[in-house]
Amino acid sequence: DVDAMVRRHGSKACERGEIIGFLGDCMQCCFHNHSDSWNRKDAMVSEFAARHEVNAAGSAELDRIFLGVTRTTLLEISIKPDVGVEELRQAIARETGTSPKSHSWLSRMEYVAGDRSIHHTVRILQLFGGVIDGCAPDKNITMDPRRRGMFGNPNLPGQLRKIRDMDELLMSRLLPNWANMCRHGILGKIKLPREGELCPFFVQLKSYVDNPRKPVTWSLAFGVHAALTSMLEVNRALPEIVGTSRSVFNQYFAQAANAAKISLNEKSSEMKNSATWKHNLSMISFLENFGLTVYDELAIWNPLCAGTSISVLNFFGNIEGGCAVIDCQAQLRIVMYLYHGLVINGIIGEKDIPLLQILYNGFKKCKALWQGSLPKRGELVKMFWMSFGMGLSDSKKMSENARLLARGGRTPPDGLFAEGVRLSRGRRMHPIEPAEILTSFRRICERDFHDVVDKYHTPEQKKNSRGREQYTVAVHTNDTLDHLEDEIQLHAINFIPTAYYLEQFVCSISRVLGWETLLKSFKRENNMDMRQGFAIIFAQHMLGALDFAADPLNHTFQNVPGLIALSPAPNIIAGTASFLEEFFERAPPQNVMWFQAVDSGDGTNLVVVR
Fold first, then answer.
1. What is residue 279's predicted lDDT score, i.e. its pLDDT?
2. What are phi and psi of 276, to 5 degrees?
3. Backbone φ, ψ for residue 605 (5° rounding)
4. Which of 103, 246, 380, 543 matches a 20 to 30 Å C-alpha distance to 559?
5. What confidence score (pLDDT) does residue 80 get?
6. Which residues are 596's β-sheet partners?
7. Most distant CA atoms of the chain, gap in Å
8. How many angstroms separate the CA atoms of 113 and 82, rounded?
9. Which three-class secondary structure state does DSSP give residue 431?
10. Distances from the Cα of 254 to the Cαs of 264, 271, 311, 530, in angstroms?
11. Nearest Cα to 130, choosing from 45, 237, 67, 214?
């Protein structure tokens, strides 16, 4: 029709692409507020007519075409408060003799038509953009509590038992709360951490709220659509999902706060004064603002938003921030080297201490701890000192000294600590990189898929699909999900209280073995932290025995008067192994695991550890 009209009434030719663009622009006008500066509805026809030199008669035909396209579009995307829609239907019925059906072009697609149409979502978002634009930035957007229906307070019997009206829910509960979060909550106060990887939906929401006059992007529409559809799909399970998500989130911060509190009671530890501990604990604690109770629970804990908030807490807070905290006093590497030494000597089994087994398996690939592959017997001392920042040559010297002591050699004349102090002073340990311990972190946060393996497509499917974007996304997604499942136990460990318990063990074993007085003296004489003195005794005498003693389990100190006088038991390794098992068996799971993955047979569920 447009092509024929231009031929009859225009002076310049019009290509097919230009006609499609004009009709698309006509449809897009329906997705803008009338006050929107991007809405070209008043100039659409005149601009097209001028471009192709269409006369007055042709412009009148274009007006009729424009009206018909916009009418049809509005009928497909109509929502409750649109005034005059029913009158429009009746007018069209009188003119055409037929009654148009809403979403007739999607009549057999029940999951994307009607209230689930993506166009319907775009239209609602554009209408609400006008609400945001009309509300002062320092004000909260709230629904009128006196209204029921027409985007007033939705009546949901039993709160969450059944969502009866998605439009009411979106306009009166979700969008106002999301807008307030973006203006006054955490989404408006900080630059979101790893926003492109962990919280793209929140980024889209923030842009929408900050620029309410701009056209609604399809990425935002699909995000909102996904949030709404997720609530419909889970149906009666929604209250449980909301409750579990909130409880898991709150459990993390309760555990972290408890660890920070009880760490103050450990007088032998400098962890509470560590800049790394204080900085990262403060940073992680700030993430609690994602779950503020001032916002509606469905706006925060619907499946999409809950998943986003918990992902930020898990990957950025617990893993990235936690990797800095968990070894801030070298407590992780001390315990891991002790555990590894006991395991390779057959003194304890790898599965005997569940918490340490999870950490051991999770940190096996950590270069900061192991400098490569796990050390064998005879390499413990050398690799330990290399992990402490010593060079290879000096680490070999310390290892040789430890070997001589384990075989009955005498303490050097300058004392227990002298050579360790001289060789280790000024050395810096390498930080633990999250991407080394969790492939899922590397996939999601660093977008590193260089070693992805496709385990699910047949050779023929790979051949036909390789290079296509959909195939690449599917392979990356499957691989990431596989690694998440394999690594879920480490994700479930709260690194903050775990850092405390590891530190508490190191301090406690110092007292049990009678080393504390010696370490205090070391601190005064060398102006170095007590942990450095502990590391010297630990590596040269305890790891040295596990490395080089003929019978590590029954090894006793020889020719080391300072330690023999302090040691409460002759068999130092046996006593330490026993204490290690007893200490971590008493660490309450509810204090270190913020959720537990439960295989229910039809998928993996999460529950709060109580």
1. 94
2. -65, -45
3. -110, 160
4. 380
5. 47
6. 607
7. 112
8. 18
9. coil
10. 16, 19, 18, 30
11. 214
Tokens encoding 523: 């601190």
**Partner residues linked to 604 by β-bridges:** 599
18, 30, 37 from 214: Cα distances, Å: 24, 14, 8
pLDDT of 558 > 80? The answer is no
CA separation for the pair 496, 257 (Å, rounded) = 9
E-state strands within 247-346: none
Banded pLDDT at 556 (limits 50, 70, 90): confident
H/E element holding 597?
strand 596-599
Q: Please, what's the b/e burial string for 230-269 (b: 16 or more CB within 10 A of its CB; e: otherwise)? A: bbeeeeeebeebbebbbbbbebbbbbbeebbeebeebebb
**CA separation (Å) from 245 to 192, 365, 607?**
20, 31, 9
How far is residue 574's CA from residue 580's CA, in Å, rounded to a whole number? Answer: 10
> Does residue 250 come out as left (phi exceeding 0), alpha (psi in the -120 to 50 range) or beta?
alpha
Residue 106 near residue 75, CB atoms below 8 Å? no
- How far apart, in whole angstroms, are the C-alpha atoms of residue 144 and residue 126? 20
- Residue 326 confidence (pLDDT): 96
Inform me whether the pLDDT recorded for 564 exceeds 60: no
CA–CA gap between residue 468 and residue 63 (Å, rounded): 43
* More reliable by pLDDT, 11 or 206: 206
Closest CA to 91 of 71, 76, 74: 71
Distance CA 504, CA 258 (A): 14
Six-digit token string for 58: 């042709």
Tell me the one-letter amino acid at 78. Answer: S
Residue of higher predicted confidence among 241 and 565: 241
Phi, psi of 506 (to 5 degrees): -60, -45
Q: Which helix (H) or strand (E) holds 526?
A: helix 516-526
Q: Pick from 375, 326, 386, 336: which is nearest to 356 by CA?
A: 336
Q: Are 592 and 491 a contacting pair, CB within 8 Å? A: no
3-class DSSP assignment, residue 604:
strand
Find the angle CA(606)-CA(609)-CA(610) to the nearest 5 degrees. Answer: 140
The answer to whether 350 and 343 are in contact (CB under 8 A) is yes
The closest alpha carbon to 326, from 500, 148, 179, belongs to 500
What's the CA gap between 493 and 472, in Å, rounded?
31
Distance CA 156, CA 551 (A): 71
Does the reported pTM lie above 0.85? no
Residues 319, 285: Cα–Cα separation, whole Å: 14
Identify residue 350 by its one-letter amino acid code: E
Q: Where are the alpha helices (DSSP H) in 363-487?
A: 367-370, 380-387, 392-406, 418-424, 434-437, 439-445, 459-465, 469-486
* Angle value at C-alpha 280, between 265 and 448, nearest 5 degrees: 140
Burial letters for 507-533: b for 16+ Cβ neighbours within 10 Å, e otherwise? bebbebbebbebbeebeeeeebbbbbb
Q: Tokens 């706060």 appear where?
A: 257
Per-residue pLDDT band for 568 (boundaries 50, 70, 90) equals low
